[in-house]
Design goal:
The complex is a heterodimer of chains A (244) and B (217). Chain A contains 6 helices and 12 strands. In chain A, the strands form 3 sheets. Chain A has a 7-stranded parallel β-sheet, with helices on both faces. The N and C termini of chain A lie far apart (52 Å). In chain A, α5 crosses α6. Chain B has one domain: Glutaconate Coenzyme A-transferase. Chain B has 217 residues and is α/β, with parallel strands linked by helices. Chain B starts with 10 loop residues before the first helix and ends with a strand. Chain B is globular. In chain B, the strands form 2 sheets. Chain B has a 10-stranded mixed β-sheet with strand order 4-3-2-1-5-8-10-11-12-13. A 3-stranded mixed β-sheet of chain B has the order 7-6-9, with no helix packed on it. The chains are: A alpha/beta (244), B alpha/beta (217). The interface between A and B is large, with 56 and 46 residues.
Chain lengths: 244, 217
């Protein structure tokens, strides 16, 4: 049942090969696997396909993000709900590499991204959604009318690895998240062949978490690493508000 | 514009005007930027459940400095608080709530709104990438879409127009727009209907800054 605990983040990402597809949880600071991203940057795997809500870098302070992996030349393609800032004046770290053609990007509505991951974990190869019908994202793609409304066909998005963050884990990998730390974590865990979790609290013995209170069951989880206290571990910090 | 001194409503006043449209018991989703200001508005005893796309149902005001929970944010990444009865779900369930038609209104920012109710808010001219976030899911599936935006661009071009020039987020969905000049409804072939003008703003000011006919009724 155990054997899932790794001593360091480097150990947990060591076998990730060039060309892997990796999903990164997190929405703003909560639930983002900063320590695993830093370890992947040190590991140096290349030609990666990276899936997350954003490429990062829109907020201050800057944290380890997909943009960092892009800057290091490790990324071939990103699949995100944001491939530009939300304001015309925002220039993301990622933008220069995208505009020069060094990195590809697939822009996906956030709910479609979440559902494509969920579908991959749920044995559903594709589904229809009303989202993005009538927009340029639907150009040339398959749609179908159900009950008088047009829907767009979307495909499941399975991944090789998921990088996750949780508050509490037992040694089997049963997870609990705190507040909005949950976000993409459960669906990315389900979509992944190998799910790796950085855990805020000490990993507790099997049986310590009430089964009714498990948010992600350990059957989806393969590797656990405890986040050390700062400065060795990276923890969420207060965001610096931008000036208007 | 005929009178460059006529500014009309402030950012918070635009948000206040939209928030006063919320009805008791509504589930409301606020987009990033000006829409988040709607939750500051005092709308009396009406009970509103604020939903955030990252799975937070029933959040409250921004947390006071020093009392933030760094694992609790709204759609804009701001550290918010929870109201009694709040719940947290994962991303796929959060968007199931959206696509399932449970959101009474979403309030979004925009670059352009057309008289057809089409609107554009995810991609600017010449940009290679875009920022969709949850806007396309919300726009396609919320029961109502309200927009808050400045009436014109920084260089004075109209944002209320006949057809969107930028790539649209969804078609035919916008029901109400608050700008610094007032409150407007897409009226299809008749342009936009003026529901209200901000203090100090004349119909002539607004028509000069609008790319399609306005009607008052």
């Amino acid at each position: 049942m155990t054997g899932k605990q790794y001593a360091t983040f480097g150990d947990a990402v060591r076998d990730i090969p060039d060309g892997a597809t990796i999903a990164f949880a997190g929405f703003a600071m909560p639930g983002a696997p900063f320590n695993l991203i830093r370890a992947l940057a040190e590991h140096g795997a290349k030609n990666l396909t990276c899936i997350a809500n954003t490429t990062g870098g829109a907020q201050q302070p800057r944290m380890p993000d997909i943009g960092l992996l892009v800057e290091q030349g490790q990324v071939r393609k990103v699949i995100c709900a944001f491939t530009a800032g939300t304001r015309a004046s925002d220039v993301l770290p990622f933008t220069r590499y995208y505009e020069s053609g060094d990195v590809e990007a697939e822009l996906v509505p956030q709910g479609t991204l979440a559902e494509r991951l969920r579908a991959a974990g749920a044995g559903i190869p594709a589904f229809y959604t009303p989202t993005a019908v009538g927009t340029e994202l639907a150009d040339g793609r398959e749609t179908r009318v159900f009950n008088g409304r047009e829907y767009l066909l979307e495909y499941a998005l399975p991944v090789d690895y998921a990088f996750l963050r949780a508050t509490r884990a037992d040694a089997f990998g049963n997870l609990q998240y705190h507040r909005s730390q949950r976000n993409f974590n459960p669906v990315m865990a389900m979509a992944a062949r190998i799910a790796i979790v950085e855990v805020d609290e000490d990993i507790v013995p099997v049986g310590s978490i009430d089964p009714d209170q498990v948010h992600t069951p350990g059957i989806f989880i393969h590797r656990l690493v405890k986040v050390p206290p700062p400065p060795d571990g990276i923890w969420p910090v207060r965001r610096q508000e931008r000036r208007r | 514009m005929s009178d460059t001194n006529a500014k009309g409503w402030t950012r918070q006043q635009m948000a206040d005007r939209i928030a006063h449209e919320f009805q008791d018991g509504w589930i409301v989703n606020l987009g990033v930027g000006m829409p988040t200001l709607c939750s500051n508005t005092d709308i009396g005893g009406r009970r509103i459940i604020y939903h955030s796309e990252n799975g937070v149902i029933g959040y409250g005001p921004i947390a006071p400095p020093g009392e933030e929970d760094l694992n609790l944010v709204n759609a804009g990444g701001q550290n918010v608080t929870l109201n009694p009865g709040a719940a947290v779900v994962h991303h796929a369930d959060s968007f199931a709530i959206i696509r399932g038609g449970r959101i009474d209104v979403t309030v979004l920012g925009a670059y352009e709104v057309a008289q057809s109710g089409d609107f554009a808010n995810w991609k600017v001219a010449r940009a290679k990438g875009g920022g969709i976030g949850g806007a396309m899911d919300l726009a396609a599936c919320a029961k109502r879409v309200f927009v808050i935006m400045e009436h014109t661009t920084r260089d004075g071009r109209a944002r209320l127009i006949e057809h969107c020039a930028l790539p649209v987020t969804a078609r035919g969905v916008v029901k109400l727009v608050a700008t610094n000049y007032g409150l407007f409804e897409p009226a299809h072939a008749e342009g936009f209907r003026v529901r209200e003008l901000a203090p100090g703003i004349t119909l002539r000011d607004v028509q000069a800054a609008t790319g399609t006919p306005l009607r008052v009724s």
